[in-house]
Predict the structure.
Amino acid sequence: MLDAVETRSVSPVFVGRADELAALVDALTRAAGHEPQALLIGGEAGVGKTRLTEEFLDAAARRGAVVAVGGCVEIGAEGLPFAPFSTALRSLHRRLPDELTAAAAGQEDELARILPELGDTPRGPHDEESTARLFELTARMLERLAADRTIVLVLEDLHWADTSTRHLLAYLFRTLVSGRLVVVATYRADDVHRRHPLRPLLAELDRLRTVQRIELSRFNRAEVRRQLAGILAAEPDESFVDSVFERSDGNAFFVEELVACRASGCHAGLTESLRDLLLVRVEVLPDAAQRVVRIVAEGGSTVEYPLLRAVAGLTEDELIEALRAAVGANILLATPDGDGYRFRHSLVREAVSDDLLPGERARVNRRYAEAMEADDSLVRAEERVIRMATYWYHANDPAKALPAVLAASVAARRRHAYSEQLRLLERALDLWESAPAEVRDALRPVDYTDVYPPCGCDPATTALARLDLLAEATVAARFGGERERALKITKMALRLLEEDQDPLRAAWFWAERSSLVAGLGRGDGWEELAKAQDLVQGLPPSHVHAQVLVRAAGWGMLHNPGPGNLEAAERAVEYAHMVGAEEIELNARITMGSLLADSGERERGLAVMAEVKERATASGYFMLAGRAHINLSSQLESLGRSAEAVELAQQGVELVGKARLLDIQAWMFGNMAESLYSLGRWDEAAEAARRTLRVGQSAAPRGSGAARLAYLALARGELSETATQLAAAHAHFGTHDTQPQHRIPLYRLAVGLAAGEGRIADVRAEVAEAIAAGFPLGHHRYAWPLLLAAATAEADARGLPAADAGRAAAVDALRAAARNLATPVPVWAAHAEYLRAELRRAEGEDTVRDWTSVVQAVSPLDRPYLLARAHHRLAEARLAAGCDRERAAALVRDAYATAERLGARRLSECLVLLAQRARLPLTAPRPAGQPAAPEADPVETLGLTSRERDVLRLVATGSTNRQIAEELFISPKTASVHVSNILAKLGVSGRGEAAALAHRLRLFGPALHPAPPAPAVPGRP
């Protein structure tokens, strides 16, 4: 190894960049206050990014921060997965071994995929959440490590980053919320062309307000002069400054190279390119030094000294002398840890590498690969297979490259670097035909993909086929989030299978294609799944057959409920059990249990799912255990057992939280939010819904979270927020999602929003569309609230001129739809009773008896909001019928207390107005002998003036501004001003909503709100 070599100082003076350095130091200060900081430093090659970073790191170290630097490695298109993070974390592990071990405690196996020093990398599990799970663990480890010390993490040369590194960096920038952490990433801006893979990431990060972007510009002439003075340790001649500034155009690195070139006696003319300038500094080195520099240029960003010694073909003394010359000329540098060499600037390495002849490049890569084959200790174990694959590939030796590339793909998979695995598999596909047949015949499947059938015979003696690579590539693309690419690969595979008939493998590819089509929003996936079913029909039981059956049953359960789905699920259980596919069997049992519960066999269905939950947990199948918790808690909510559902969902969150199954956890939070809403624990429900959005990685659980927030906003009278969250839910679910469990709740929200804004025509349109789409078996839990909301809207709109026409038809349609809905448990029987009473109220025929029946049905349920609403209606009916006022007052007080506790503003307003009209106290009765308070005017309680009262009365009848002006003898402009003031005071967004509020609160007299006819005998909807 080379001893310390005295090298020429490039520039002891730090020139310019004062504002940029100040921004970095300011970020360090903010991070010390437990506010994580994220910064991007961009600029063209040679502009001074590294020097600025070094100055910042010096400042950070002086303040006691722990700094760690990792660089992206340019080693080919596939890159080294997580290379900069691995290097930086390795540095932290050396400096803070006990602290980092404690921060990773309990997750060492998983985090070893990024930092191998933590332990052996497990083979699995592999799924679409694997990468997100790893990212979440990494983020939380960094937060724990930075809890009581400032950590500065610098990732250099992001333009060379592998896909997994880019995704992890984006995840950290989005999710870091605590800790004294500063993350800085640098990139070469001039390399980021329109189609560069870094460009979308930069655009995404630009939208994050938490990310600060620093762009470095070139030096002006004065700054170049200062730089030259620092390098020369003397004031430069002005003509020399002009010459250097003209040639370098203010690029700091080129300034240094021009000075170094003059000092070393290489006289490059002004007409030569800057690339030639870089090369001419190499060409003045001794021959041995030039040879070593060329070898290092092809080895990657850094080359270990033992590997360089094995490849160079020089004696150790000759190698050391050559390195001394290259380091002395400031072309190469020893790495910070002293075990290898790198170029001082990547521009020089690129120039030298580009200058190699094709045959020369292949020969150098071959030497690297042969040296590593001969001695596997020359490089780090985690880098060996991927670097070997790269060297053999660039050596143009398909016979050696194909096995090496396949081995590298398995290593990438084990690190959850699925994008890199895909690139390697695509490289293997390119090499396939050019590799000798005997090499291909010797290959064996290494890492079977899910239930893809390895072959129709003994896998130990059957060669790997091109189709097997396409299967691996399909799943790698899906796990890596590249569904479009996966879809194209399945198409290629199915074309191959047209020539070589293999129904089992074809069924596997069609099943994969079904998931991809649905995930991309190209359809619901049924057409593809049906083809898979046709292909396995009549075949002996197999893993693929069982998988296709369970997917078909699951698809039917979600999209087209019916008895045929239960039969498919039961067959899937049978087939999976026969072939020993335990995971598929447990998955099928979950589907079967859900279908049993939906079909009426509730206790049996719950028992099946509970058994799966226990078996899956005991066997370590955490994704299946999570799914069991999701479906069980959902079924418990459907049965009105909301408290049990919350408890079970909480247990599930803790279970899958340890395995970091983020989407599974998000679904559980969504279920929890639904049940907490039912229980009247609305603040907890809101937090659970927000956690659904924070944790969820996929669109569907995030859509569920947005829908739960919309329900809460609607109940609290926040119509603008309701509209926002409803739109978000629609965006997440997409137009292709036809699942009734998503579709029907969104209809219910749309009905509630339209009713709140006084759009009764839209209420009817939404309900008609929902009824036309149908309420499949098991979905009564979503249909009853929808029909009840529509019936309430019809009843509240009674007396609105725009609502009279069409009311009878709308009420009839709701009654007809209700007749076909099941009421298997008390909670839905109560909804049916409530719906019947609301429909009678819409017809002006509701009675005390109707609402008494509703209250009796709702009271045993743990549904405080539903009960408060029922109490409101019963109190209103009792007052209208002249019944006992004390009982009515008690009902109003109870309902008002609940509404206030929940924050149900609209219900509170209705109760306040009812109490004012009926002169009922909202608090405990006054002591005997105390005079009653004067009756308050309901309109005045809203803060309206007498003129605004008159205007609102006319708005409620549907009058335009011109009609209002004519009626009140004011100008249309004045009328418009009054309307605007009224909308602001009422907290509504439009005239229709104001009119609906006036009618709902009964602000005006009988002329506007006709009294209901005499009570009639109650009937059923």
Notes: Residues 503-520 form the longest helix (18 residues). The two ends are 91 Å apart (CA to CA). Strands lie at 37-43, 66-71, 151-156, 181-188, 211-215, 303-304, 332-334, 340-343. Residues 1-9, 267-272, 1006-1021 have pLDDT under 50 and may be disordered.
